[in-house]
Specification:
The model has no long low-confidence stretch (mean pLDDT about 95). The protein has two domains: about 260 residues, 3-Layer(aba) Sandwich (Rossmann fold), CATH 3.40.50; about 80 residues, 2-Layer Sandwich (formyl-coa transferase, domain 3). Helices cover about 40% and strands about 10% of the residues. About 30% of the residues are buried. With about 400 residues, it is of the alpha/beta class. Helix 1 crosses helix 8. The protein starts with 7 loop residues before the first strand and ends in a 10-residue tail after the last helix. Strands 3-2-1-4-5-6 form a six-stranded parallel sheet, sandwiched between helices. The longest helix is centred in the middle third of the chain and has 24 residues. It has 20 helices and eleven strands. The radius of gyration is 25 Å and the shape is elongated.
Length: about 400
């Protein structure tokens, strides 16, 4: 099932960025073998749990995977993972390349074992710059790519991180695209390759794509920044009883808005009448929009704006989002039965294919749940597997 059916991925990632990428590949049909340490992915411990090691961050980032424990610092553990790699299409890792080299699992080693392998690294920085060996986390990269500075410009002047692992997820999705593109190239050439997906450069492009502004030119025409995004009144608007999300963007929408609100005075105001006028005076425009929207309730504005074909959406919190009528109607986050965790919500893949539909085949695994199964597939005998358990190279699921 899914467009990546038949693709085998050795997933040597942990925390969020790499696991989110490999979960997406698994959602698309790939067979994901998640290699974990004996302690397991640290996200197993994050958030409220019904059972130790099965926290919500882990559950929502590791479906459609099989789990195997291997101690890669032991020769037998390294040999075992090399046997998995020999039969894989893709290896994904998210430690620094220097760490992979210390484990003797660098591309120079594994490409000799499997020349068709796509060797994908998601880590902090491109390897040809002075930051090559630096550690990186979502918060650090947010700061280094100006997101807190932009947040400060739009609020009270205090820099803040976006309250979401934005970098990890954007870079994870970038990795999915890079891996799929590499598989297409391999199908054409028969050769695998190393592909690096650095966090810093990926996010620099992501942020500056909006905010390069006059810095695009040499010499610069201004200090950069997209005025509409940086307007202090670009935010959910207060109504008489709550908040609402509205964007009046093009000329047709503004014409409809003027008619719906009886504001003919704004129709002829040069600051409001044209796209160029609004762009130049965006703070004035958004401030006036904010004043208008405070005059009626959220439900009243929703009805008025939908009738006028002006884009409008509710401002949800985390709980109400799950009850949104569209989310409910599309069954995007159904409650299902996990074999050990009971009733849980499981978000579906957002992508849809007409010929190769994707379906959830596995829920997030217990630590080492599939170790014996995966080792058998790699050619290990029952006695060899028992020896690996005895020697602490792998771990029986009953021990978790």
């Amino acid at each position: 099932m899914g467009p990546l059916k038949g693709i085998k991925v050795v997933d040597m990632t942990s925390v969020l960025m790499g696991p989110f990428a490999t979960q997406t590949l698994g959602d698309y049909g790939a067979d994901i073998i998640k290699v974990e340490s004996h302690d397991g992915d640290v996200t197993r411990q994050i958030g409220p749990t019904r059972h130790p090691g099965m926290g919500p961050v882990f559950l929502n980032t590791n479906r459609n995977k099989r789990s195997i424990c291997l101690d890669l610092k032991k020769p037998a553990g390294r040999d075992a993972v090399l046997r998995l790699i020999a039969k894989a299409d893709v290896l994904v890792y998210n430690v620094r390349p220097q760490a992979m080299a210390r484990l003797q699992l660098g591309y120079d080693v594994v490409s000799k074992i499997n020349p068709r392998l796509i060797y994908a690294g998601v880590f902090g920085f491109g390897q040809d710059g002075p930051y090559a060996a630096k550690p990186a986390y979502d918060d650090l990269i947010q700061g280094a790519t100006a997101l807190p500075a932009l947040m400060a410009q739009t609020g009270d002047g205090v820099p803040r991180y976006v309250p979401n692992a934005l970098v990890d997820r954007i870079v994870g999705l970038t990795a999915v695209g890079a891996i799929c593109a590499s598989l297409v190239d391999r199908d054409r050439t028969g050769r695998g390759q190393r592909v690096d997906i650095p966090m810093f450069e990926t996010m620099a492009s992501f942020v500056m794509g909006d905010h390069m502004g006059g810095l695009t030119y040499e010499p610069p025409l201004d200090k950069g920044g997209y005025a509409r995004h940086l307007s202090p009144d670009r935010r959910p608007y207060k109504t008489s009883d709550g908040y609402i999300c509205v964007i009046v963007y093009n000329d047709k929408q503004w014409t409809n808005f003027f008619a719906a609100t009886g504001r003919d005075d704004l129709r002829t105001n040069p600051k409001f009448a044209t796209f160029a006028g609004r762009a130049t005076n965006i703070d004035t425009v958004y401030a006036e929009l904010a004043r208008i929207l405070e005059t009626k309730s959220t439900s009243e504005w929703t009805a008025i704006l939908e009738k006028a074909d002006v884009p409008v959406m509710p401002m949800h919190d985390l709980e109400s989002l799950l009850q949104d009528p569209h989310i409910v109607a599309t069954d995007f986050a159904p409650v299902i039965d996990h074999p050990t965790e009971g009733r849980i919500r499981n978000m579906r893949s957002s992508a849809r294919w007409s010929e190769t539909p994707v379906e959830m085949t596995r829920l997030a695994p217990r630590l080492s749940e599939h170790s014996a199964e995966i080792l058998q597939e790699a050619g290990f005998s029952a006695d060899e597997i028992a020896a690996l358990v005895r020697d602490g190279v792998t771990k029986a699921v009953a021990d978790t």
